[in-house]
């Protein structure tokens, strides 16, 4: 019973079995009643024929009385025997109930008694005496016929009773079947259809992301268990979906915040990388904005002092006072904060210490304070690492710029010193020797003509020294005022074109930033010295300066259409050509002098720039590093 109460399938199966059982019982009972009524019609026919048989016996007796013959006597005996056979036949007795208390059984016994006690003796006496007592025979006949009619009537009533019983049983089983079907339909409707409809409603609402609907099914059957499981699943799905929505919203906020931070880092990189040595004005607004977006702070930046190996505070957001290391009291970048914080204000927070480094070189540290109860997410940590890397790149670039400026300054000083030594210093040394020679002549009271020659040499030397000084001033002024070598060469060609009174062409085809300042100075000085020699000695009506980059080498060519050279060698003790050759050797190239086929001379210098040499060595360096790494 408990199993039937708990199992919907068992209840449905039981209902189907009940309906099937009632249908089977109805069929069996119907077959039994029908089987019991099978001989009733034959019995009624036999009982009805008994009446006809009695009249036939009477008619045969009358014929025998009129004509007493053996044939008529035999006919009487045949009819009598036929009556007795029919009265005791199985077709009739089979329809008679066995119970002696049944009215039909008693009526059958009464018919037998009438036949054997009344009619049969009359028939036998009439056959034996050949005389028929019609009145007595008719009385016996009427009594027998009356009893037979009563028996037939009872047989008919018995058959009708069976038919009524069969109809009643059919109606009863039909009613029972209808009741069982109604109960089964009610059970299916309330325990199967309604729960299934509720489950479908829950499934449809769940498909629309509505997890608040519940079936609330009661009971212990399968659908109730399934409904409670669906309710539990819907509750869990609702909780999970709400949690996922909250996580998506949180992730969306983090992504939006990360996007804003990345935009701040991108916008701040322009001022950060172009801010020179002033990290306060370039980095402080960016750090303050990052702290505001990420809800953290303060943020402190400290750099390593390479001389004392200590951390030097450089920058702090939300600073309450000007730091002791401040070098510009007109700057308020670290003081502009809506909520200034002191060190004591961060005691309830945690600090994340990030390295500010480039490769293996440790440049400093970045302190990031945040509330202790709020843990920094992985995305925030990645953003802070990107911030530290960006600051490290900016600091590294600024340090390299400072070093490059110092190196450039020292290099420029070296160039100026070498130029002074190669030109003006040698001229002054020559003048000094001439002055010493003149002093010795005066001490020996040498003739005035000999001293006059020395004076001429001193005058020539002074003019040359003055000219060299002007050349140097012009060269450095061109270098400082012009944006590059091309501009300096253009000004030089214009200057010598005016001095010579002849056109001086310039053909320049060199990629930008290929030559370093030292190489540009040497190229410019060689070109000026060659043009100066053309102006002094060539008697030219045309000159050209060509600078081009060809096959990873710089080719400098100065041509003219003047008188040319006696041979391809430089004149002995020609100071200008010696200096040009020394400059070419300094550049790592060679100087060639030759006459042009069309007339005039050609000075050519070919060398490999420092940049090209570094590029050519790069694959070898990379191969070496790769081998070391392996």
Automatic annotation (TrEMBL):
Residues 234-261 form a coiled coil. The keyword NADP does not apply. It is found in: Cell inner membrane. It is an enzyme of class 2 (transferase). InterPro entries: GAF, GAF-like_dom_sf, HAMP_dom, HATPase_C_sf, HATPase_dom, His_kinase_dom, NarX-like_N, NarX-like_N_sf. Its main location: membrane. The chain crosses the membrane at residues 12-34. It comes from the Bacteria. Keywords: ATP-binding, Cell inner membrane, Cell membrane, Coiled coil, Kinase, Membrane, Nucleotide-binding, Phosphoprotein, Transferase, Transmembrane, Transmembrane helix, Two-component regulatory system. Pfam families: GAF (PF01590), HAMP (PF00672), HATPase_c (PF02518), HisKA_3 (PF07730), PilJ (PF13675). Residues 415-611 form the Histidine kinase domain. The keyword rRNA processing does not apply. This is Sensor protein.
